[in-house]
Fold each of these.
Amino acid sequence: MKRIFIFLCFSFLSAHVWSQKDSLQIGDKYSEDQLYISITYNQLFSQPSQVKGSGFSYGLSSGFMRDISFNKEGTLALGLGVGYGYDSFNHGLKVSRVNNEVTFEVDNSLTSNKLSIHSLEFPLELRWRDSSVNKYKFWRIYAGLKVSYNFSNTFTFNNGTQDFNFRNVSRFNKWQYGLTMAAGFDAFTAHLYYGLTPILKDTSIGTSNIETKIIRIGLVFYLL
């Protein structure tokens, strides 16, 4: 039922945007309200020195952007959005629970060690494009900030004989911020997210704080 509701909402928004475009005339002021879908290759950086490089990790996100034009031509604008993001990481940090306290340690021998993240996204973009009312293929450069609120995180690992799951770890940083950049032509746009906030808070291995952050590189598709 939840999936049907989300599909209907997206369908309604998409129809609204298309009808808005069809009603515009040359010379009208316009905006680029858009649905967006992105797929990324993810990596963790600023990891503790003892942690080996993470394995293949990926991310998916989608949402809606509201466009506020700064000029009549619509070439400069501010984009405000809301969406949903999912990230999956293979990583080298082992989660344990000692005296009801969650702790982290390095264990590169684990056969499987994954982190799954579900978040609400709030992107803010300064937008430039060479589009017009009747020009649907154009160059774009969007730069900005993305704020994420994590509502679910799960650490899962296998030590060769048993699976372990830790859900909604309290030391996970629920609010995270990162810089974004998107540039491309027509339907194909390269996307970069550079995390500014560590994914964990008040955590350390020995005397070294865990400052692990996220970087995402991929493609974002804007549906007008």
Amino acid sequence: MNGTAPIRNRPDGFEIPRGRMAAHLRDHYGIRDERVLAAMNAVARHLFVPDALRSQAYKDNALPIAGGQTISQPFIVARMTELLELKGRERVLEIGTGTGYQTAILALLARKIYTVERIESLAAEAKQRLMGMGYRNISYKASDGTEGWQIYAPFDAILVAAGGPDVPEPLLDQLEAGGRLVLPVGNDRTSQRLVRVTREEKGFKHEDCGPCSFVPLIGQHGWDDTRDK
């Protein structure tokens, strides 16, 4: 933890299932970064899901939210976060704020988070929720996330919580030397490979980190979707 964002410090009735979730991430999935595990055990996921689904908040699956989107499975949140290798001083760009759960995890682990969400209602609700919870190291934007956030570039790390057909060029351009970009990439809208891209001195290193399934990354450098216009 970097001390710039709050940690859960009041009993909320979900301590046991949240602790079991964190233990499952460590023992079953092999998540080894203790800072990531501590963040997963600190953030109250039940506050980021629809009220009707709170009893399922700490199960190992994605859940539907507004706008046809999802809140990612706890494992994939932990896995993507671990792949960023955050130490506490980074400036991180997040594409796909959603309800703000992944944002909250990142905010505990890095110095500053810049989060972009294309659906304005989700962006507004996430900002209200996170500010109400006391997070102060997050900047918010409602826009096409595939364009990144040029004014604040370059970023030490970038996380994309939606699957696109390729790695968006603007995100590569906005990645700091030595920085890591983690995102799902696939040829169709329902199945992807989780990829980590590291910016090296003479180009980019791509690593395949296994299969995954995300909602489509909609935007200028992602999938087209006239239904959202």
